[in-house]
Design a protein that fits this description.
By secondary structure, the chain is α+β, with helices and mostly antiparallel strands. It has one domain: Nuclear Transport Factor 2, Chain: A, CATH 3.10.450. Helices cover 28% and strands 50% of the residues. The protein is built from three helices and eight strands; from the N terminus they run E-E-H-H-E-E-H-E-E-E-E. The protein has helices at 24-41, 45-51, 70-83; strands at residues 3-9, 12-17, 52-60, 65-68, 88-97, 101-112, 115-128, 131-138. A six-stranded mixed β-sheet has the order 4-3-8-7-6-5. The chain has a two-stranded antiparallel sheet with strand order 1-2. Strand 7 (115-128) and strand 8 form a beta hairpin. Helix 1 (24-41) packs antiparallel against helix 2 (45-51). It is globular and about 45 Å long.
């Protein structure tokens, strides 16, 4: 499988593995993660809710964050969008891991008090059916 590029979000070019060789479940999971990133970048809470499992878990060991459930995630996301209205995740690579998970290489960036804030992060996203059930963020 070679590397290629495709648009995940309008105006955002990402590097990803080409589609050939992916199972239907892997292709679906990568598309679900792409839709999640797009909805996050646009703070489209309706779209995020349609992708997230009601019992969604989000873990970020670097910050000590553990969120359990859609309501907890939404509350935290609303805090983040208030603090960083221009925040954005830019995906630089994805890889399907079996038929139930996707590894994502990305960076998160925003502006805070007039200065740019940016950090690299990797995410492991677990999918069941057509819903994201767990996101674990590594920095």
């Amino acid at each position: 499988m070679g590397l290629g590029s495709r648009n995940v979000c309008p105006g955002q070019q990402v590097v990803t593995l080409r589609q050939e060789g992916r199972t239907p479940a892997q292709a679906r999971n990568v598309a679900i993660v792409a839709a999640w990133v797009d909805a996050y970048n646009h703070m489209d809470f309706d779209a995020l809710a349609s992708i997230a499992a009601p019992d969604l878990e989000v873990d970020d060991p670097a910050t000590g964050t553990h969120l359990q459930g859609w309501a907890a995630f939404r509350a935290r996301a609303e805090e983040i969008v208030t603090r960083y209205p221009d925040r954005r995740i830019t995906v630089t690579g994805v890889m399907a891991l079996g038929d139930s998970a996707v590894a994502v290489d990305a960076y998160w960036q925003a502006t805070e008090n007039g200065r740019s804030v940016r950090h690299a992060e990797a995410m492991l996203v677990e999918v069941v059916g057509d819903r994201i059930v767990r996101r674990r963020i590594y920095r």
